[in-house]
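During the second year of the project, the team shifted from modelling isolated chains to modelling whole assemblies. The rationale, set out in the original proposal, was that interfaces cannot be judged from single-chain predictions alone. As a representative example for this report, we include one of the complexes processed in the last quarter. Its constituent sequences, exactly as entered into the pipeline, are reproduced here:
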Amino acid sequence: MPETRLLLKHSGDAAYRSIQGYMDKGGYAGLKKALSMDRQAVIDEIKASGLRGRGGAGFPTWIKWNGIEKEKTKPHYILCNADEGEPGTFKDKELMENTPHLMIEGMIIAGWATQGDVGYVYIRGEFVDCARAVKKAIDEAYEAGFLGKNIQGTGWNFDMYVHLGAGSYECGEESALMSSLMGERGMPRLKFPHAPLPTVAGLWDCPTVINNVETYACAPYILVNGGEWYATLGASTKNSRGTKIFSVSGHVNRPGNYEIEFGTTLAELLEMAGGMKGGTLKACVPGGSSVPILNAEQTMNAVIGYEEMVDAGSMVGSGGCMFLNEHTCIVTFIWRTALFYARESCGKCTPCREGTAWMEQILDRIRKGGGRMEDIELLKEICSQIDGRSFCGLGDAAAWPVAGALKVFPEEFEYFIRHGHSIVDGPEYRRMAPEPLTPAKV
Amino acid sequence: MAAAANEPQSVILTINDIEIEVPRGELIVESVKRIGLEIPIFCYHSRMKPVGMCRMCLVDVGFKQPDGSVRMMPKPQAGCTLPADNNMVVYTDTEKVRRDRKGVLEFLLINHPLDCPICDRGGECPLQNNTIFYGPSTTRYVEIKRHLPKAFPLSKYVTLDLERCIQCGRCVRFTEEISGDSQLAFRFRGAMMQPSTFELTDFESRFSGNVIEICPVGALTSAEYRFRARPWDLQTKPSICLECSNGCNTWFDYRVASLVRINGRTNEAVNEEWTCDKGKFGQNYLNSPDRLTEVFVRDGDKLIESNWATAFQQVSVAFQSAGSKCAALVGGKASNEDIFMLKRLFTEAFGSNNLDHRWTRCLPKSDALYRVATSIADFENEPVIFVFGNNIAEEQPILFLRIRKAWFRNDAKVIVACPEACEADTFAHTSLRYRPGTEAVLLGAIHRAATGAGGVDIAEASSITGVGEEAIRRAADAMKSGFALAASRSLLDLRNGEHVVGALSNLTIACNSSEKYNLFATSANEEGARQIEFMPSAEGKNTREILEACASGEMKALWLLECDPLSLSHDNELVTKALETVEFLVVQNHIKSECVQFASVLLPACAFSEKDGTYTNLERRVQRIKPIIAAKGSAKPAWKSFGELLLRMKGDPPPFHAHEVMQLIAASHQKFQSAIYENLEGEGVVIPANQSTEPQAVDVEYTAMEVPSNTP
Ligand SMILES: Cc1cc2nc3c(=O)[nH]c(=O)nc-3n(C[C@H](O)[C@H](O)[C@H](O)COP(=O)(O)O)c2cc1C
Ligand code: SF4
Ligand code: SF4
Ligand code: FES
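Output from the structure prediction step:
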């Protein structure tokens, strides 16, 4: 299948960033349609579309929107997760810089459907350009009467603000994001069944919808063309509908964002990105650094879909797809990934705080030539002691890549430990190692 | 999860195949205790909100399905944050759970320094205990441990060993949730996360000592106690703190007859489990060289060491020859037994009724103005609380914690009126910062705003007191349908104290809250002395009259028990004159005070840790102290010396044990009948209030007082 550009259709068009250009291409028609509909009918449309969260977990979006109380007793908040911290993922960045109104329109639609009062766009601290673009677009939307008081004569008021984070991966986790937004330390909060769902008590204990940038950006298309139409996209998969943007990086000829229909294969995605560069395919991390790594064979057989990718041995995740060529040292790659998680663990819970740091220490020792055979078993055990035992998803996300690599590429670890240097010693490998390695025994 | 109003209040769940019924929403970590089980914990603390940080309490959880099968959740769940629900199935001791616990402990131990042999906590350490029962026996960690400062001074009292910290967050949460001073927070993240003050400033808190006790490892240590003892070398006995009128329960840890440390002891009715820093760190005087340990008698301008017999001889001659021209004054640290026996000595042997325990400037006659109606624990459930006068966090720190809890847990509206910034302002519904001296005016304005009549004009009051009209109305609005008053007797030190207190009483009557009027004692046994009526009867003299009579030479002999008038009285000129002039002065104390220089006879008294007896706290709770360490030198319990004197002078058989004194107290004061020693184990006994008639409104001048211009 070729690329199916829906959200990214006008991404290259500079005029599309302004509200005028956006409306010239049919922008805000979805919102206008929504405003003419019953609130519940909007949610039903989202339900019919089969839209699932694009932030990583793939949770059905309509369930969140429908979970907001219909008899309003408190302010309702619409939260956009624009923290995009997952290594390998850069789709939200493009969406916010090039098509900011798409996301804003989606948030306003969500606000209408759930009787929202205020929307917050929580943007990753480093994304200053995104914040500027979104802020400008919000101002335009106010001016055009899509935000503010009495929107389009409906009598409904809705405000929107931009908030820049302070640079923590964990603040992309929805409950930590809320803590951070409320001015607390960016640590996650208790989840259901230990505490009410965010749709019941989220931001400031009020009903809150939280979705990813891309999720919101889908809503205008669904409203304009109907949920049923949207659900025809990706119909070949078990339960994944519509399009998904993949941020392709690594050893490919044309890295960048590619929007594909669910049901496309990873092989086709690789082809879109111009195929492998500098060597043949060795491995692929298809959904951002948290998801388990696939070897070449698994990659070439994988169909993109939430369930299909699990069958293939990994996950859709946030769509940060890294293709790695034959010169990549998996041990070093995984060590670098582990280092990221050790540094980004918020420190709240024991397994993640201690376990991620310990795994990094072991992998670092291995990559410096000091590995022991028992380290492989130990790493596996540490992963199993973190996975599912930590407070939030970051712990799981730190364990999966290590556990995945040990399962798929055991020989690379064994080789490194036995010989004290990588199975793929060469310039490419040396370039990747961020600090001088201890002299490898040859 | 909030239970809907119509859902039943209890749920049935299965724990380790045993079915039990528990209140809806109870945390699993508590539910398991009902069947005698325990889940290991670190971060969970029943007095603070659960956070689920340490993951020590993971259990297996599933739900019974309609078809009778059980569907287990794929991940283990933290028992400390999971509320019990119907059809829930919990396993606390499966192979999987045991493995998870081992895993968490292994993680906690990899970076723990394991310097247990020199750690204060060794032997009473939850980390050691959980490791023994649930942990791995060896480590698989071969990397280099994290190294961090091992003696970081958070404050003068608290030293932090960052390597031992297991990042459970108890200390941080204590300062956020319980003390409310938010002094601690975590800095950095991941494995480098550390508790710290903001910007590394001093850990400034009235309650910092508590974090040492709730820290589950030896990370937070007492700067003073650090490395001084091993817990198993210490002996411990229950005691009571005498630093204020709250009567907090403590553990008194001692070694070789001297105090080593004080810890909080749980008494739900009084201090829950907390202590303030005065109570925890302020007991060093027990071992101080300033302790009075021997009898001294005056010889010219010198005091020479003597013995009890000589002293008794001189005392009985002097007081008998003084006839009824003798008087006794007591301070706040004398026990019920001391006070009662001193009263007997004076009324029965010396024929004098010049007795008093009150040191305030105003001494209102009406007993009703002194009443205390609300118990400490009841404050927790009061919806509206009026804190009036002084900084309550300073005067009654632990009562302050209860009032804060009423706000934190139960959303109580707390109206705070204080002339200076105080901690209670941080959670006040309304803060009324009035100019010193304008107390009565402010109360008059609230009175008017709440009832529409009486009191004073609000606009006028606003300009006098400096409190905005709107704030006065807002406070009155919250209070008009009832409130509990928290004020202390130090208000009677104001020159118009009687009017201020009268205005408070009138306000409670006007708002239908006279059964929630509380004017609290400020020192440890002030309330006890009041209940034993250590006060002049009709023909006797009160504190001020006694001092004046001493100063004029009319009063011949004065007995000071556990008191230093120079620090207690507001009129030092009068005190000095009185002490200089009075012919015969007995000073009986556990520690040397300034008035020692005037004494004719110095009698050493036992401190609270050295004697048997009882104290009556601000809510009239009689609590027992027991002798823990031996009396110093020739010191004896004051009540014993009075018995001996009575024997010498009247031939009355003296009581040999403190409990006999209590029986005598009960015989002459009926309300003490429930306070006989057999009843005092546990939480102590609250004796009934005086039967007073319905409080009546009193005439009050709602006027301001001139205050010296140098008052802030
Ligand atoms: C450690 C961690 C980091 C996350 N970071 C992001 C992120 O940067 N952006 C995002 O949209 N979702 C992130 N998520 C997922 C969010 O928690 C949440 O599932 C998502 O915002 C829901 O939106 P959706 O339903 O539209 O996917 C993260 C989750 C975890 C556990
Ligand atoms: S898993 Fe635990 S330490 Fe890691 S980010 Fe989540 S809460 Fe923080
Ligand atoms: S210092 Fe103690 S109480 Fe505070 S976080 Fe560390 S272990 Fe917990
Ligand atoms: S005791 Fe439950 S997570 Fe710490």
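Chain B has a mean pLDDT of 94. The pocket of FE2/S2 (inorganic) cluster (ligand 4) is lined by residues B 41-44, 52-57, 78, 80 (CB under 6 Å).
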